[in-house]
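Recap from last week: sequence in, structure out.
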Amino acid sequence: MLLGLTLADLQMVARTLGMPAFAAKQIASWLYDKKVNSIDEMSNLSLKHRELLKEKYEVGAEPPVEAMRSVDGTVKYLYRVGEGHFVEAVYIPDEDRATLCVSSQVGCKMNCRFCMTGKQGFKAQLTAGQILNQIHSLPERDRLTNVVMMGMGEPLDNVDEVLKALQIMTASYGYAWSPKRVTLSSVGLRKGLKRFIEESDCHLAISLHSPVPAQRAALWPAERAFSIREVVELLRGYDWSKQRRLSFEYIVFQGVNDSPAYAKELLRLLRGLDCRVNLIRFHAIPGVDLQGVDMEAMTRLRDYLTQHGLFTTIRASRGEDIFAACGMLSTAKQEAERAASTACPQAD
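Predicted structure tokens:
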């Protein structure tokens, strides 16, 4: 699969196949600038070299197998990634912006209480090519202004492939996007977090959801291994005052983390850190006994935090009618395929 290979990778491919060194840049241009779907389209490579390339490789582009469209214009796409595995990408148009929410794993190990993807368990890591294919094969790809790695999976639990994909998104030989167009969302896995901060200039969003460690552990079991307090201390060691943005995601649950006491703990935890907080409304998912709050409660929490010096926004809810939060569509598709594969054939 050529999609997902860096320029250095492509130089190795060219060298191995006896192609001239400049062929690597030509292939990169066809993949990431012209976004071709087949090697035959790489017309400035000689026929001999195209045939050599086809013996060992394919572009690896795969169109989505299913789409769900919301009344607000949001579209959830389902991509097949290997036998019986699927991931979701969510396209969110908004006036002059268009954002794609991209997945990095099939399932997830984090088992967050409020997340449908976590209920799948972990199935597989996505390659850089499978991550980029969600962009490459997106019907609206030419309208994209932003990408957020907030889809299925924990990106920093797949840090090698995620960093490779981010490099291609932002490199001059790749999509050549400004790092300010890309945000990675993570629960804060320490080792991967350090690598991301030091090897990428993209924005960072940390999934916080509760400033109280014991409660955060009840929502997100991995808090016991990766404490939010340790994550915040690590983040204090870096400069967030320049081009890169640091934000914290805070899903608001009724009667759980929506009281003034939690707002005060949040202010205490993040005091002095150059960051913002994004408040997110929770939409119920099957089998989870958590409830969201109304907009009045969201506004009250935002105003309290802002008045006390913590820049806070309320993220607009999109695609609620199609369950745009990741995990629902892929879970249903995997269950349907399993049922079909185990069904007994009818007798003639």
